[in-house]
Amino acid sequence: MLVCVTLLNACTGKPNLEVDSPDNTVQLTFQNGEQGLTYQLDWNNKSLVDASQISILPNIPVKIIDTEIKTENSNWKPVWGQFSDIKDHYNELVIRLEINGKSGKLYARVYNDGVGFRFERDNISSEDTLDFFAEYNLPSKDMFYAPAGENPPIGPLSIGTLTTSEEKLPKLALPIVVEKSNKMWLSFLESDLYSAKGFNTMKLHFNKETGKLTSSSKPKASAGKLVTPWKVILFGYQAGDLVTSTVTVNLAAPCEIENPDWIKPGKTLWDWRVHGYTAPDGFVYGINTESYKRFIDFAEEKGIEYFLIDDSWYKHATKGHFELSPELDLQAVIDYAADKTVELILYYDRKHGEYGDKELFPYYQSLGMKGVKYGFMGNNVQFSRDAISQSADSELLIDFHDSPVPFTGVRRTFPNAITREYCHAQQDSRKAFTPETFIKMALINAIQGPLDMNNGNFDLSGINAGKRQKGPKKLNSYLSTVVSETARTLVIFSGLVCIPDAPEAYAAKSDLFEFIQKMPVGKWDESRILNSKMSEYITTARRSGTDWFVGSVICQKGGTLDISLDFLEEGKIYEATFYEDTDTTDCKTNPEAYQARKAEVKKDQIIKAKLASGGGHCMYITLKE
């Protein structure tokens, strides 16, 4: 449902520059002055962002022609995601304006938990120097965090400290997360970059002189009509509220794939971190046909949808040709998987030569692949945009490697963009991955969308002892427990959950592996963050039908978390399977100790979940017959 009302102030004849959220708790107010437009954002009568400039041409006065309020209240169903049904409910202020003699519009869309800003401008010429610019004016005591690639996330840093610091400021990336002094939480990011042709990812900067965070989005020279990405502000009472917000996908363009039925989220086994692992029967895993058949057999047995073959399956690529590794018969592996219920995903990057971008995806499709893991192009927006659409043309899922473009919301527009490594993936470089860093990434990096983090290692002792070719560079540096590893596969949302350990490692703990095995990845009806505290802990609950999966992870201090089962149905009895650390479990000294038990539970019961140092806690809750 869409309702439009053109508004002028009844007393003055001036345009209305205010818009509230549907529940009337959010107020977004604009002012037009000599330096252009400013906005202010309030929630529950408390300031979230004080008066801040927003423009398409910074510091240029604008003439407001008229304003219009639109209201939308509808529902749509994603192909996959954290929710099976999404409400799109907002009020939108459309400001028609004139800048330097050229017309345009500013769209300000207000949800109950977020806002989005987008400019449209007509008659752009190649000589126009445009910048979609926004300030975020925050009090000096507000603390902020930001991703830092494979390094520990930045923060907490106070606005006041940055203003007075003589040190070089860190490079900032999306999304910025802010813990306000009034204990509310914000995030600054963007959505629908895919639709904003000519734009790169918005750049963030802290201006010491003004004490304000700023964002800048500059398009390449173009002509005709300009459409910017959405600049987004999310807000919530706890950090976890930002992770399950649907604002960014609501702002993204609708699905462009005519029939997306071929897109199937799921779990995948992965060979890269298993190389060099010696199975109990003496078999040593490597890049060869027999190793891959073992993965496929286990995936078939456990109902794992995919097997991902990573780097070095080919030694060199030239136009239209791959030179395979000597011990691998790829066609034999393809034929073997075809006789099972297991689909294949194949890696590709340019460091071994170049096959050809446009030719790659049809070739992978001709091999019977269901997806591609695409590596080493980084934050190249146009390349990534082309790869997403071209892989969709060949009915391939795509998983981006190596600090890719965030493209927040693109999973609505192109749901074949199934996941991306916009994080510190398990065992990479090892300079960042601690329980504390994991929790930070789950509450910062994950706001931008699905993550390929490669959680779920079970042979932690073997990995820490260096019994893998691709294990940690520093021995005994992998701090986790097997229950924490299990919980992490649920906590981190993805359309493709990549589990990185050997089949035999999972078989040895088959009762614990059942939690991962049963998870309907990407096909969730509902998702909630029950507990969250930056760097310390997170509890995530996801529902599929009447079944609930609950996973918690804690920092190295360990402790007890109260988990309320208020999400269960009143008057119903459920059976919960608990997967827990034991009294002797420790992420450094005894990471593989765990226990599993069952008990009846009901609505509003409080579970006292005891977690070891760097540990975890899982519950699979199902309705009793």
Structure notes:
With 625 residues, this protein is α+β, with helices and mostly antiparallel strands. The protein has two domains: 2-251, Beta-galactosidase, Chain A, domain 5 (Distorted Sandwich), CATH 2.70.98.10; 265-524, Aldolase class I (TIM Barrel), CATH 3.20.20. Helix content is 17%, strand content 36%. The strands form six sheets. Strands 1, 6, 7, 8, 9, 11, 12, 13, 14, 17 and 18 form an eleven-stranded antiparallel beta sheet that branches. Helix 4 packs parallel to helix 5 (330-338), helix 6 (357-366) packs parallel to helix 7 and helix 11 (482-491) packs parallel to helix 13 (510-518). The protein is globular, with a radius of gyration of 25 Å. The two termini are 40 Å apart. InterPro entries: Aldolase_TIM, GH, GH-type_carb-bd, GH97_C, GH97_catalytic, GH97_N, Glyco_hydro_b, Glycosyl_hydrolase_97. Its cofactor is Ca(2+). GO terms for molecular function: hydrolase activity.
Quick tags:
single chain, 625 residues, alpha+beta, Beta-galactosidase, Chain A, domain 5, TIM Barrel, 2 domains, 11-stranded antiparallel sheet, 7-stranded antiparallel sheet, 13 helices, 35 strands, 36% strand
List the helices and strands and how they pair.
Blueprint: E1 2-7, E2 18-20, E3 26-33, E4 36-43, E5 46-55, E6 63-76, E7 86-99, E8 102-110, E9 114-124, E10 132-136, E11 143-146, E12 154-158, H1 159-164, E13 176-179, E14 185-191, E15 203-207, E16 212-217, E17 224-227, E18 230-236, H2 239-243, H3 247-251, E19 266-270, H4 289-302, E20 306-309, E21 314-318, E22 321-324, H5 330-338, E23 343-348, H6 357-366, E24 371-374, H7 381-393, E25 397-400, H8 410-413, E26 417-420, H9 435-443, H10 460-464, H11 482-491, E27 496-499, H12 503-507, H13 510-518, E28 526-533, E29 537-544, E30 547-554, E31 559-564, E32 574-580, E33 595-601, E34 606-611, E35 616-623
Parallel strand pairs: 19-20, 19-27, 20-23, 23-24, 24-25, 25-26
Antiparallel strand pairs: 1-6, 2-3, 3-4, 4-5, 5-10, 6-7, 7-8, 8-9, 9-17, 9-18, 10-16, 11-12, 11-13, 13-14, 14-18, 15-16, 21-22, 28-29, 29-30, 30-35, 31-34, 32-33, 32-35
GO molecular function: hydrolase activity
Organism: Algibacter miyuki
Domain Glycosyl-hydrolase 97 C-terminal oligomerisation: 523-621
